Automatic annotation (TrEMBL):
<dbReference type="InterPro" id="IPR039425">
    <property type="entry name" value="RNA_pol_sigma-70-like"/>
</dbReference>
<feature type="domain" description="RNA polymerase sigma-70 region 2">
    <location>
        <begin position="17"/>
        <end position="79"/>
    </location>
</feature>
<dbReference type="Pfam" id="PF08281">
    <property type="entry name" value="Sigma70_r4_2"/>
</dbReference>
<keyword id="KW-0731">Sigma factor</keyword>
<keyword id="KW-0238">DNA-binding</keyword>
<keyword id="KW-0804">Transcription</keyword>
<dbReference type="InterPro" id="IPR007627">
    <property type="entry name" value="RNA_pol_sigma70_r2"/>
</dbReference>
<feature type="domain" description="RNA polymerase sigma factor 70 region 4 type 2">
    <location>
        <begin position="107"/>
        <end position="157"/>
    </location>
</feature>
<comment type="similarity">
    <text>Belongs to the sigma-70 factor family. ECF subfamily.</text>
</comment>
<dbReference type="Pfam" id="PF04542">
    <property type="entry name" value="Sigma70_r2"/>
</dbReference>
<dbReference type="InterPro" id="IPR036388">
    <property type="entry name" value="WH-like_DNA-bd_sf"/>
</dbReference>
<dbReference type="InterPro" id="IPR013324">
    <property type="entry name" value="RNA_pol_sigma_r3/r4-like"/>
</dbReference>
<dbReference type="InterPro" id="IPR013325">
    <property type="entry name" value="RNA_pol_sigma_r2"/>
</dbReference>
<dbReference type="InterPro" id="IPR014284">
    <property type="entry name" value="RNA_pol_sigma-70_dom"/>
</dbReference>
<dbReference type="InterPro" id="IPR013249">
    <property type="entry name" value="RNA_pol_sigma70_r4_t2"/>
</dbReference>
<keyword id="KW-0805">Transcription regulation</keyword>
<protein>
    <submittedName>
        <fullName>SigE family RNA polymerase sigma factor</fullName>
    </submittedName>
</protein>
Length: 176
């Protein structure tokens, strides 16, 4: 790409980043189950990839950037170093909520219990309101896989988020 084209692209890309970065960080934090540092890294990587191909982006740049972000997340999870558990003697520092939209810690903890691809399916379907077909395209799987992963993920979230009652309170007129 010529230097002149790059200079013409920079203001448009900067406007895009200002308008969409917050939503991308929120999505990344949900995908990473609340890991704010990893979310920032994923967004930064995604934005670099979007910038490099900005001149070829057609249609809806936000959707393109979301796809790049999900691909960065999936690629990150595939790295061998991520799969290994790393024990430490030190307790990590607590991280203050980043950005204007603080995430519900109960929801983030429940999402953390889901496997990464299941979590991605739930976030894309129910946070971003994407269709089954759009989600399947982003995750590179079949629509049936998206449906089953979303259904199982929602079941697990409900089980984690619903109050647990050891002894249900009987209702008036209940024969038990």
């Amino acid at each position: 790409m010529s230097l002149r084209k790059r200079r013409d692209t920079d203001p448009a890309f900067a406007d895009f980043v200002h308008a969409n970065r917050g939503r991308m960080v929120t999505t990344a934090r949900l995908l990473t189950a609340g890991d704010a540092d990893l979310a920032e890294d994923l967004v930064q990587t995604a934005l670099v990839k979007v910038y490099v191909s900005w001149h070829r982006v057609s249609g809806e740049p936000a959707a393109y950037a979301r796809r790049v972000l999900v691909n960065c997340f999936v690629d990150h999870r595939r790295k061998p170093a991520v799969r290994r558990e790393q024990a430490t003697d030190d307790v990590p520092d607590t991280v203050a909520p980043a950005g204007p939209a603080a995430l519900d810690p109960t929801l983030v903890a429940a999402l953390a219990e889901l496997p990464p691809r299941m979590r991605a399916a739930v976030v894309l379907r129910h946070v971003h309101d994407l269709s089954v077909e759009e989600t399947a395209g982003l995750l590179g799987c079949s629509t049936g896989t998206v449906k089953s992963q979303t259904a199982r993920g929602l079941d697990k979230l409900r089980a984690h988020l619903e109050p647990q009652h050891a002894h249900p309170v009987p209702t008036p007129g209940d024969p038990s």
